[in-house]
Amino acid sequence: MLSNTAYVILGLLQKCPLSGYDIKSHVDISTSFFFSASYGQIYPELKRLEKKGLVEGTELATGRRTRTEYAITAAGQAAFDDWLAQPSAGIELRDEGLLKFFFGGGLDRDALLDKLAKLRAARAADLARVHEVGEDLPEIADELQREVLDYGIGLYEYVIGWCDQMTKRLAARPETDFPVDPNPCAKGD
Question: Do 48 and 111 share a domain, yes or no?
């Protein structure tokens, strides 16, 4: 069984051979908005894929350095196609700002409003980055990739709107509605 990072790599290698650096660059302007991969994930995964015969590396001389460019093999394409045919496991949303808000039950209203403002600002920055990528998409993407970009735009717009709604709701509640130190584990007397 391959990791999702392996499938990201195989998917990118379908179009043309790429080095690990090139793969990371493509991830940064495409899948990173919904599925990121670091150099620390990409390079070891390339070695595993090569060992399994799913990609093939070729050493290329580029100036004083050599770099390895990887191409997908027929076995790699078959593994990728098989993965595409399988049902998806579902969404794994990981939003640290939302997690901090979730655990902010012991905070006063102003602290919670501050957490929401930071979450909103972070998602607005993400939305701006997605729009920047969208400006370059005609050159680098196909129709399905543009549709996924629209999904990302809609998701970030939704989160920003949710933050705005929560800010209004919390700001309208009396300060006494925010206990300073709730303890859900406290046992009654």
Answer: no
Q: Which domain holds residue 160?
A: 96-177
Q: Read off the pLDDT of residues 37-70 as tens digits, 9 standing for 90 and up.
A: 999 999 999 999 999 999 999 999 878 888 999 9
Given 34, 58, 85, which residue is the final one in a domain?
A: 85
Q: Looking at residue 39, which CATH number applies to its domain?
A: 1.10.10.10
**Token representation of residue 58:** 């070729």
CB distance 57 to 69 below 8 Å: yes
Q: What angle do CA 49, 54, 55 make, to 5 degrees?
A: 75
pTM: 0.69
What is the distance between the terminal CA atoms of the chain, rounded to a whole angstrom? 53
* Residue 187: inside a domain: no
Residue with tokens 């799913």: 54
Q: What is the largest CA-CA distance in the chain?
A: 76
